[in-house]
UniProtKB/TrEMBL annotation:
Classification via PROSITE patterns: RF_PROK_I
SUPFAM superfamilies: Release factor
Name assigned to this protein: Prokaryotic-type class I peptide chain release factors domain-containing protein
Annotated stretches, region: Disordered: 106-140
Species: Aerosticca soli
Tree of life domain: Bacteria
Residue ranges constituting the Prokaryotic-type class I peptide chain release factors domain according to the UniProt record: 21-37
């Protein structure tokens, strides 16, 4: 069971782990052990996730989310499998926790009259400065 928060936990049956050989330092050891972890979680078909959380996860522009709605996390930061496995699970929990928070709705506002006047005064000031940078006209 992967605990996300007090109200949500993902059962082990929904998590698919695959172990593969990691690249990087480690000498001969890295060529013989499968220490990297690929954790897959099917966001689109998960019965555990609330609908709002599922929609927020699927709406994310995340390259780890494939076209089928499966979130794929690869962990190969550490040299031993147990630490990589824990790292992948923690990263998944962080992603799901972020989707639990409902984003605030933006309230459309208009600039005040004073703000518009300040903006226009600033534009006039910049225009004057740039006009002074030009060559003076010669009297004919």
């Amino acid at each position: 069971m992967l605990v996300i928060d007090a109200h949500l936990a993902l059962p082990e049956t929904e998590l698919d782990e695959r172990f593969l050989r990691a690249d990087g330092p480690g000498g001969q050891h890295v060529n013989r052990t499968e220490s990297a972890v690929e954790l897959r979680f099917d966001v689109a078909r998960s019965p555990t996730l609330p609908d709002a959380v599922r929609e927020r996860l699927l709406a994310r522009r995340d390259r780890r989310l494939n076209a089928d709605g499966v979130l794929v996390i690869q962990a190969r930061r550490f040299r031993d499998q147990a630490r990589n496995r824990e790292d992948a699970r923690e990263r998944l929990a962080t992603i799901v926790r972020a989707a639990l928070v409902e984003p605030k709705r933006r309230v459309a506002t208009r600039p005040t009259r004073a703000a518009r006047e300040r903006r226009l005064a600033g534009k006039q000031q910049r225009s004057r400065i740039k006009r002074l940078r030009t060559r003076p006209e010669r009297d004919a």
